[in-house]
Amino acid sequence: MNKAITRRSSSGLGSFLRAVGAIAWKDLAAELRSRELLSAMLVFALLVILIFNFALELDVKARASVTSGVLWVTFAFAGTLGLNRSMAVEKDRGCLDGLLLAPVDRSAIYFGKVISNLVFMLIVEAIVLPVYSILYNTNLISLGLIGVVLLGSIGYVGVGTLLSSMAVQTRTRDVLLPILLFPVIVPVLVAAVKASSGFLQALPMDEILPWLNLLVVYDIIFIAVAFMVFDYVVEE
Amino acid sequence: MNKAITRRSSSGLGSFLRAVGAIAWKDLAAELRSRELLSAMLVFALLVILIFNFALELDVKARASVTSGVLWVTFAFAGTLGLNRSMAVEKDRGCLDGLLLAPVDRSAIYFGKVISNLVFMLIVEAIVLPVYSILYNTNLISLGLIGVVLLGSIGYVGVGTLLSSMAVQTRTRDVLLPILLFPVIVPVLVAAVKASSGFLQALPMDEILPWLNLLVVYDIIFIAVAFMVFDYVVEE
Amino acid sequence: MIEVKKLIKRFGLKTVLRGLDFHVEPGEFVALLGPNGAGKTTFLRILASLSRPSLGQVSIAGHALPAQAAEVRRTLGVVSHLPLLYGDLTAEENLHFYGRMYDLQNLDSRVTDVLHMVGLEHRRRDLVRTFSRGMQQRLAIGRAVLHDPEVMLFDEPYTGLDQDASAMLDDVLRNVAARGRTVVMTSHDLARAEELGSRFDVLSRGAIAASCTQKELSASNLLTFYKQALAA
Amino acid sequence: MIEVKKLIKRFGLKTVLRGLDFHVEPGEFVALLGPNGAGKTTFLRILASLSRPSLGQVSIAGHALPAQAAEVRRTLGVVSHLPLLYGDLTAEENLHFYGRMYDLQNLDSRVTDVLHMVGLEHRRRDLVRTFSRGMQQRLAIGRAVLHDPEVMLFDEPYTGLDQDASAMLDDVLRNVAARGRTVVMTSHDLARAEELGSRFDVLSRGAIAASCTQKELSASNLLTFYKQALAA
Amino acid sequence: MTPTPRALRILEIVSFLLFVAAVWMVFFYAPLEAVMGAVQKVFYFHVANAWVGMLGFIAAGVSGIAYLRTHDFKWDIIEVAAVEISLVFFFIAIVTGSIWAYPVWNTWWTWDPRLTTAAILELIYMAYMLLRQGIEDPERRARFGAVYALIGSLSVPLTFMSIRLFRTIHPVVVGGANAAAQGGFDMTPKMLQSMLFAIAVFSVIFVTLFWHRIRIGFLAQTVEQLKLKLSQ
Ligand code: HEM
Ligand SMILES: Nc1ncnc2c1ncn2[C@@H]1O[C@H](COP(=O)(O)OP(=O)(O)OP(=O)(O)O)[C@@H](O)[C@H]1O
Ligand SMILES: Nc1ncnc2c1ncn2[C@@H]1O[C@H](COP(=O)(O)OP(=O)(O)OP(=O)(O)O)[C@@H](O)[C@H]1O
Ligand SMILES: [Mg+2]
Ligand SMILES: [Mg+2]
After folding, report:
1. Is D11 in the pocket of ligand 3 (CB under 6 A)?
2. Is the pTM here over 0.80, yes or no?
3. What is the distance between the alpha carbons of residues B19 and B6, in angstroms, rounded to a whole number?
4. What is the rounded distance in angstroms from the CA atom of residue D219 to the CA atom of residue A27?
5. Does the structure show a pLDDT above 60 at B10?
């Protein structure tokens, strides 16, 4: 104990980034060891696709038109799974209190969680896309689509992280997240679906652009708002 | 302490039923106080319906054929929400251990949970169906369909309760249930979907009957198996 | 009453209980001592039929575990590290529920007695979720003795209890001991264990390192005995 | 160091803290005593900025709560009823993580020291999930002192600790007290509190019922003082 | 209890008279729509309700911001009031819509972006109610409610724009026509006047109800405080 414990007396930004890093790292480290969450999200994603497929008895042409819809609904459902879990971890042994006790800016906690959630989401999507292309032999891997997926996921995780940290502090935590998240995320989903199907049907860019813009706009708005109000969500 | 504490020395069956009752009662009592789970399941059910139709923008005629499909997928998703919650409650303060310590037959625990889960599920369905009939302007309230819903829900809850009590004992409890449940429950869902759409399209009974039989058979098998293996599931 | 032979418990590769032998006569009050991580909780969970032995025989009241768990359970009253209570039910409802599970008669009066005993009468209608740690522990004890079990397995039951509650628990334990019940209690509070126990077993590195009765002890004191046992 | 005026905390209709006044000088070691449900945990959570006062002023190290929570947090080390540890990380990783959150330098050596101090070196690479209750409590204490905080808020820190661990904690607390740190500790173990504390406050029905320093006490003993305070 | 303020009394009467006037205007001033005939009269109430509802949701979002800035419960009360009333108004819009839809599209409901977005908007605020219901601590309930009201209001614009962005069968009459729309029509000046008037009237009605609901909110708050006084 008698050895001097020194704090880094460095710039605010430096320590801010270190905190963000530490939080994201911890989630990823835990996941890297067990790989539970990722595999769960993956299997679930595939299940959703299959269930859709059989529930709707999609015939080939019908399917072509709904591909992007199915994809995004799948991502949405798989996403909530991930968000729920990554917040449940924080609540487990009172860790959330541990985080809140730390002398770091609340937004660092937010961005840390956003990063780890986003990574999980993107990994899942990166695997689902090719699988889907194979299942329904339509090539989904195009630069445009990847861009859309990225934008969509950012918006989704941006709001999702905020709402999941709200949901986890309520009594009905295990059921509340999808209910809070799905309706507000619709704008992002719609734009994403439209843009994706635009790329899939190789529409001219000027028909896709408005949707991309909408997507970008909502991403920015959501992230900005979430970032601003996150303090109020975690402050007790 | 000195007052004599007497146990009822009644028939096994009597105490068995009392135990089942006690377990179901406790879940219902807690829910009756807060009504959280039910309202959550309801809103979620509506959300699923909307999101589906939105993402898929099915044209009207395409839809007529898939009505029952969407309906059952909705029930399936809303159901997992309920199952997850009702088991999470058991794990919360180690209550599951409390249940296991009680000198009651394991099957009593199983049936107790089945009853409470079934009640929740049926209530939700009872509300979703009429709403649904309006949204799809097809009258879903027919004796036949109600029968199918009942049979389908029994099978669903029968397996679901078993699997949720497995999921809750794993570390990934918050994500595992749907992954375990959906693949297993497919036969029931298929039969239910077929039978429902049979009734919706007013097919002759002899075309529906095979599906009904399948449904009944699966219900019996699932309940029986679940009933038999439940012991092994809950014993650590 | 309790008969354990060559009990081995593994978690994956780690062996926690290494051929543990343990024998308790009816009416004995065994204080199970041992450092953190010795395996006390693991052992009690096996006795409570909540966890399966990897190897070895365990039998309680003549019934083998895990085979005849059903018979064993009626005789057990357990206090564990968790309160085993429903946060969304009131104190009263919790006891009522467990009372029904144990199929007790004239339950209402019994519940009232127990609530009175653990000093939670005035809070009987509050949700357990809102209870303080000590209040939850009190209720957990009430739950454990509700059906007046033959054998009591108490894992650090004094955790979080204040002076009054501790005194209450002392009485309860003396009372049950006097009525010839069998008790196995873990504790890190040697003074208290010395007061109550009729026998002291020290669990160390997954086996009983030493054991002695109240009488044998009376010469020396428990702390020294405990230290020697661990030193050995 | 700690300044609390007319603190009121309500949960819905229930008032838990009723105009509580509390003042601690730097370097004081306050043992916060009181029956179950008195409001100790609620009070400490407010001091730790984990819960908002319904009314009244709270300030620590000159910073007001909840307004300047950020400044307050650097000075705090907290042990609560829950260990605040990640079950899916190892002991080492947990301390590393918190070390980064507190932005400590030469972290590795510090983590090793702490693990050594709480006697978990040999388990440093095991997941906290698999730890026994006492081991989790040890690590929780390690986590709380990792950054050598100015003010320590310990809620029943001895819970589940064995003899060695308790002795370790005694040393830690004596040591920090000697280095002029401020400590507020709740406990139901009066003997231990009497040994360590420089001041004893009894919290009862949501207010400080009585308070006296080590010296004033030295005549009588803590138990009687405690009983009188509650009787009053 | 404070009596209803005079202004509010007057407002009640005014809004009633205005409502009668609006009804008259709709049925006797505005010309009969050539294609759809009498059904089209629904239009005025439909649009008015929808717009007022959406404005209310926006208002809730704004008062959410106000609460987060000031932490003053008055804003929380206003926010809830806004949400609840708008829920009703918007629901009426949806119902009148489907009443209109039945003859025009010969279906009560069809899956069309505008209809779906409208339904989802309604669901957002049902979720809002659920969120509040799931939280006990009033302070936190207010905070989370405010945050969600703010987030929710973000998707109002999309709902409004949807008929202008998507190809939908739902007509647009204000700001650009819609190719795929069925049951669209060009408004004659008199129609426009009636619509604007109807919107104005429903805005007034909204204000009246809003005011009432807010008063109820404050009364409820005082009741809470009285209860508190009694409980001590
Ligand atoms: C359940 C069915 C319907 C719903 C949920 C609905 C919803 C709405 C909403 C939310 C608005 C206000 C937002 C806006 O003005 O953009 C609106 C406006 C309007 N609705 Fe509907 N509507 C429905 C059916 C109909 C039908 C059947 C018609 C006529 C064929 C109709 C005609 C209009 C018109 C003309 C407006 C004003 C549009 C404008 O602003 O220019 N609606 N409706
Ligand atoms: N699920 C598990 N997986 C792996 N190891 C475990 C698991 N549960 C317990 N252990 C290990 O078993 C040993 C004994 O744990 P146990 O909880 O029985 O100790 P204890 O005697 O109760 O300690 P305490 O006095 O702290 O309660 C510990 O080393 C612990 O790490
Ligand atoms: N969330 C809550 N809602 C309602 N009442 C609560 C809540 N949390 C605590 N209480 C009440 O506040 C009182 C004080 O609780 P607290 O946990 O502070 O007691 P404590 O002094 O820590 O007791 P213990 O010594 O048992 O830990 C108790 O009566 C408890 O019922
Ligand atoms: Mg233990
Ligand atoms: Mg406490």
Report:
1. yes
2. yes
3. 17
4. 54
5. no
